[in-house]
Amino acid sequence: EQEQEEQAANDSSRHGGRVRCFPHERGNWATYVYLPYQAQEDFLELLDLLVSHARTYVPSLTAMDEFHVSLSQSVVLRYHWINPFVQSLKERLASFHRFFCVAGRVKVYTNQNKTRTFVGLEVSAGHFQLLELVSEVDKVMEEFDLPTFYKDPSFHISLAWCVGDLTGSLEGQCLRELQDIVDRFEDSELLLRVQWEEIRCKSGNKFFSFPLR
């Protein structure tokens, strides 16, 4: 019991919720909670158009091969905390129903320490439900003395990323042209209306799924 408490104090002081890039240590599992998005063919087609256009501004841009909306920061869990953590998530998320989001606004993001830049689709409709989910996930984080999610988050599906802070090259002209591609894309309204069916937690190489009702 004592070892656990010592470890908790040690972890939260060391990471302080600020550092995203933590070294992998034995028994430390990088963990995050998210809504998985299953990309269909037409979404990948749109992605392709956006990324190849954005590359005319930032050639080093790489398309994501997996899509989701984050509900937590990436945190470090001790191995023996994984099961109680997942159990606690399961209890807190059990009453949530499926819901829709619309993600049609192209936006540029950087990670906290500005070492990476992302192009994403920001969620407009569905923001309130996402905040409700985060509030439950945050309570679990607090229980385990881990950093909670960002205040006033901009929920989004990341589409592509590059190393460094290239906000300057992607915002303005490039962003307007990308938005134009989205708006003109066939059936973009339908395509970017997403129904969430489950919440997932990834810890190290393990996945846990919490179906929405």
From TrEMBL:
ATP-binding is among the record's keywords: no
GO cellular component: nucleus
Catalytic activity field: a 3'-end uridylyl-uridine-RNA = a 3'-end 2',3'-cyclophospho-uridine-RNA + uridine; a 3'-end uridylyl-adenosine-RNA = a 3'-end 2',3'-cyclophospho-uridine-RNA + adenosine
Gene Ontology molecular function, alphabetical: 3'-5'-RNA exonuclease activity; lyase activity
InterPro entries on file: Usb1
Single Gene Ontology BP annotation: U6 snRNA 3'-end processing
Keywords attached to this entry: Hydrolase, Lyase, Nuclease, Nucleus
Pfam short name (any one): HVSL
Superkingdom of origin organism: Eukaryota
Function in brief: 3'-5' RNA exonuclease that trims the 3' end of oligo(U) and oligo(A) tracts of the pre-U6 small nuclear RNA (snRNA) molecule, leading to the formation of a mature U6 snRNA 3' end-terminated with a 2',3'-cyclic phosphate. Participates in the U6 snRNA 3' end processing that prevents U6 snRNA degradation. In addition also removes uridines from the 3' end of U6atac snRNA and possibly the vault RNA VTRNA1-1.
Database matches in HAMAP family: USB1 (MF_03040)
Name the UniProt record assigns to this protein: U6 snRNA phosphodiesterase 1
Lineage: Eukaryota, Metazoa, Chordata, Craniata, Vertebrata
Gene name for this UniProt entry: Usb1
